[in-house]
Amino acid sequence: MSILLELREKSNLTQEELAERSGVSVRTIQRIEAGKEPRGYTLKALAKALEVDQKELVSEDVEVVDRTNYTMLKIINLSSLPVTFIPFASILLPLLIMFFSKQFHPIAKQIVSVQIMWTISSAIVFMLSALSKNIFPNGSIFILVVMVLIVLSNICIILINTAGLDKNKSLRIKLPFSII
Questions:
Q1: Is the CA virtual torsion 72, 77, 81, 86 positive or negative?
Q2: Based on the domain organization, do 75 and 161 belong to the same domain?
Q3: What is the CATH number of the domain that holds 10?
Q4: What is the residue range of 11's domain?
Q5: Considering the domain boundaries, does residue 177 fall inside one?
Q6: 32 with 38: CB under 8 angstroms?
Q7: Which of 20, 53, 87, 164 is most enclosed, with most CB atoms within 10 A?
Q8: Among residues 122, 18, 110, 33, which one has the least CA distance to residue 73?
Q9: Selection from 47, 17, 42 nearest residue 31 by Cα
Q10: Which residues fall within 8 angstroms of residue 7, CB to CB, at 6 or more apart?
Q11: 39-67: b or e for each residue (b if 16 or more CB lie within 10 Å)?
């Protein structure tokens, strides 16, 4: 039962009488009694007409609605996939999608941060492998294997995080900090 309905019936008023006393339309009173939360002027006017505190008209058990667009977060994450073999594009594409879709959610920032860290790490690993190619008998094959492993690691990170967004609405692989 609606708080407004309870208070109105307690005061022995019809919807029309409450509308007259408060200056709020009958339709608005009906909407509030159906479950819509009163705000602003309507809240003040109804509280004054019923001679109660405004806090009494607002339910305390209002659920916080999660309005995060997880589909867009998955798109931002998956946008790195087609350009995985181009390290800086795997940062740039998700960043552009994030800005154009105005998804500045902490998860979106974390997705881009993970890609930045992966790019830095992969560049360091690639340089070290290039420097150490003389240690291995088939140095060129060693560098090729390292490059393939670097790309595969990024694909795994992207797919694992997409699965985490899908199931838990959070990233499975994330940093303890955000770069952006």
A1: positive
A2: yes
A3: 1.10.260.40
A4: 3-57
A5: no
A6: yes
A7: 87
A8: 110
A9: 42
A10: 50, 52, 56, 57
A11: eeebbebbbebbebeeeebeeeeeeeeee
Smallest CA-to-CA distance from 107 within 119, 96, 120, 94 is with 94
Query: Which amino acid is present at 48?
Result: K
User: What amino acid occupies position 76?
Assistant: I
> What is the helix (H) or strand (E) element at residue 157, kind and residue range?
helix 139-167
Q: Which candidate, 62, 60, 56, 48, places its Cα nearest to that of 5?
A: 56
- What the block records as the tokens of 44 is 């003040």
Write down the residue that tokens 């350009």 correspond to.
83
Q: Name the token pair of 57.
A: 């008209």
The number of residues making up the chain comes to 180
CB 50 within 8 A of CB 7: yes
Structure tokens at 102: 């105005």
- Blockwise average pLDDT, block size 10, the chain, 180 residues: 82 91 92 86 90 80 60 92 86 92 90 94 91 80 90 94 92 90
- Six token digits for residue 28: 């608005």
